[in-house]
Fold each of these.
Amino acid sequence: MDCGSEKLYITYSLDWSEILWGSERDGWNHLYLYDAATGRHSQVTRGEWVVRSVEHIDWNTRQVWVKAFGVVPEQDPYYAHLVCIRLDGSDLVVLTEGDGTHTCNWSPSRRWLIDTWSRVDQLPVTALRDGETGHLILELEGDRTPELVRSGFRLPERFIMIGRDRETPIYGIIVSPQHLISPRLDIPSILLTMALLPSPSMAWE
């Protein structure tokens, strides 16, 4: 269930004795576990990253799997990774690796995990992983981006710049025309930004 876009996530345990709730009370979107009878609670996930969605809860093993943004240092914070953590907040494991956004598919027993990841400048890579540790078992499809580049395709360029507060990193991409002769050539450009507006703002330069 998505707990990022609507800013609301709440679910009960199988016996209705506990509540798992999403909140931004510490400044980051995280999960909290409540005792349904007393209201006592503890923080399940924490840190300078956000829970985007809850993928699965196993109340018997006391574990929860979430899609997380910003959980891997030095990567674009908008890249999604799969994370497993115990409901007492211990044993956090990032099950995916690779500098990009990940989508995952489980085997019926949840013993194995098929992890596919990509970026705007890299074609998808797919691997079979251990569902408990994230350990790589077998690469199913490798990175074929070099073949695409050799064919003449111009990849988008990623960049990072600092915001007006001189602290906040702003992540973006530049998509150039496929047949651009020179990167120094003056051409019209379209600027799209995702900010506080409900939809992208657009401007011509």
Amino acid sequence: MNGQLVGRAVGAASLALGITDILSGRRLGRNVGAGAAMGGRLFQIAGAREVATGIAGLMAPGSVGPLQWRLAGDLFDLAALGYIAAPGNPRRKTALLALGIVAGVTLIDLLAARKLAKVSNSRAEESEAPKQGGGLTERGRKAVAAYGDKLDRIEMGLEEDDRTPLDRPGVQAGTAGTGGENKVQDLLS
């Protein structure tokens, strides 16, 4: 499964969960024993966060950022549900079930984030890795080839020699020019 597909799947799931939390927040809050008012607000806030990360995940499916935001939100959700599932809660079993579901979703998000980070890192390594040819990148090989072509045209008399004195064969640093003066002085005069 490629990174884009993982990002889109998690983004779509986040969007769906967020909309569900927003629309059913009061009922979910009541069902876990947090109350319709306070628990409902908690679920609606979590839903808004899910919608935001879902949209971000769908807009940038290859980015690990939205998944990291989801993981941060999952940790908040786990902490809140852990508090709600305290022994004094008459709906503790339902709160523990919700806690288990969120823990499962957190595990899925963690695995997806790791997969996406691995795909992103391998893509970055491929684009930065030098191709065969003496450790040069493709761009470097092209520049060396173009310079070699220029030297060939100069030797054949097809192009004027516009190289600096130090670029010419047989000239050493500090001795460019007629009297061995400093190269900078020669260039300025």
